[in-house]
Design goal:
Blueprint: E1 4-15, E2 18-29, E3 33-37, H1 44-52, E4 59-64, E5 67-68, H2 74-79, E6 82-85, H3 97-103, H4 114-123, H5 125-129, H6 140-153, E7 158-162, H7 170-185, E8 190-193, H8 197-203, E9 206-211, E10 214-220, H9 221-226, H10 228-234
Parallel strand pairs: 3-8, 3-9, 6-7, 7-8
Antiparallel strand pairs: 1-2, 1-4, 4-5, 9-10
Helix pairs in contact: 3-6
Length: 238
């Protein structure tokens, strides 16, 4: 078994006096797509917040490439390649598509590498067609592609995504998941938080199920997809 690229160990944290995570542990290894499933309020976004440095820990630690980075700021984690594509896209609505992408390079490398832009136009042809268009005028699916492309401009060693399919039409959802598989096949590990359990488990090498701040199930994507319990709870099947 390969060494973990990222480990979250016994994470406990919350907001105000209440804990949201109660000893959450997970790993991501090189080459993997790992999915984190759970209902609303389970603690999925908080988990990504801990990993990216947005949310501090009360107990536990974050280990990245064998080093404890629990006390590091978000910008320092970004420079090391731990990149989050947040929920609700969070693009810059008043910047053009191209300017949004350039913004994604600033922390890792303030000097724009034109080759990165060309690679983005190849991977996301629709963004190339819209390169001078304001981000806020794009469709929801195009904005999600822009958010993913902007994260890739930071050359992630691990790409973390929070609900990339949220609010998108089924055909666009299929396209987004196909892009994630391509990104992974090109060498970038992926940690995916997603409520579309069926699609997420289809592409995941491994998966965790989070409920009320605790990991309650883990296994391969195919194992969880075949689980009657998971199918009832997250796939809406009897």
């Amino acid at each position: 078994m390969a060494d973990a690229l990222l480990r979250l160990e016994s994470a406990r944290t919350g907001y105000g006096p209440n804990d949201v995570l109660h000893g959450v542990s997970l790993t991501v290894r090189e080459g993997e797509i790992v999915t984190l499933l759970g209902g609303n309020g389970a603690g999925k976004t908080t988990t990504l917040g801990v990993l990216s440095g947005i949310v501090g820990l009360r107990q536990g630690k974050v280990v990245w490439e064998g080093r404890d980075i629990s006390g590091q700021a978000t910008a320092d984690r970004l420079r090391q390649g731990l990149v989050l594509c947040p929920e609700a896209r969070r693009i810059f609505a008043r910047l053009t598509v191209e300017e949004n992408l350039i913004a994604g390079t600033w922390v890792r490398d303030p000097k724009l590498n034109k080759a990165k832009l060309e690679k983005t136009w190849e991977r996301f042809p629709i963004l190339g067609q819209r390169r001078k268009q304001l981000g806020g005028t794009l469709s929801g699916g195009e904005q999600q592609m822009l958010a993913i492309a902007r994260a890739l401009m930071g050359e992630p060693k691990l790409l973390m995504l929070d609900e990339p399919s949220l609010g998108l039409a089924p055909l666009i959802v299929e396209q987004i998941f196909r892009i994630l598989v391509e990104i992974n096949a090109a060498g970038t590990p992926v940690l995916l938080v997603e409520q579309n359990a069926h699609q997420a488990l289809k592409i995941a090498h491994r998966a965790y199920v989070l409920a009320t701040g605790e990991i309650v199930r883990e296994g391969t994507g195919s194992e969880l997809l075949a689980s009657d319990e998971v199918r009832r709870a997250y796939l809406g099947e009897d």
